[in-house]
Amino acid sequence: xxxxxxxxxxxxxxxxxxxxTATTSAMLRWAAAFAASADLSELLPxxxxxxxxxxPNPAGWDAWLIAWPAGADTGWxxxxxxxxxxxxxxGVLTEFSLVGGRSAVTASPSxxxxxxxxxxxxxxxxxxxxxxxxxxxxxxxxxxxxxxxxPAYSVHAYSPRLYGMTRYTWRDDVxxxxxxxxxxxx
Length: 186
Prior knowledge:
Elements: E1 2-4, H1 21-37, H2 40-43, E2 51-54, E3 62-68, E4 77-78, E5 83-90, E6 92-98, H3 104-107, E7 116-119, E8 123-129, E9 132-136, E10 142-145, E11 152-159, E12 164-171, E13 174-182
Antiparallel strand pairs: 1-13, 2-3, 3-11, 4-12, 5-9, 5-11, 6-8, 6-10, 7-13, 12-13
């Protein structure tokens, strides 16, 4: 991924339909089946850093297996309009997310980097145990952490394809836009 400075969607990548409830359910079922049938630690050994690999799937979703050593986290981000799921295959993850889903794009992209997106009052905390997962709407902003001493594995799937992530940071008591990461592969 490379960092770019503006929030824009590439006109060559038309807006694809968001994942429906049926698609979200199918993604979660596939993630659970994949997690149950794969040797996760052989596919992706736990290292000192959070790591990931792409996972092929019959539906052609953008899918990833992520290995989480103790203390690993994602930082605050959204998925730039891609809806999806994450399923915890092993271990426990903590998700901090914004109530009501408001990404930088939905909040007002023209307000700039320092414009507040949310405050701490807008943050929800959720523990996601092994064997459970959740859907992520197109405007979902969250921060996922392995707060526990044991490593974890999660399976993620997105539709449309994940083209990048919008990054956020806390300044005092408000969440603000920090930048945009775009995937440079076609």
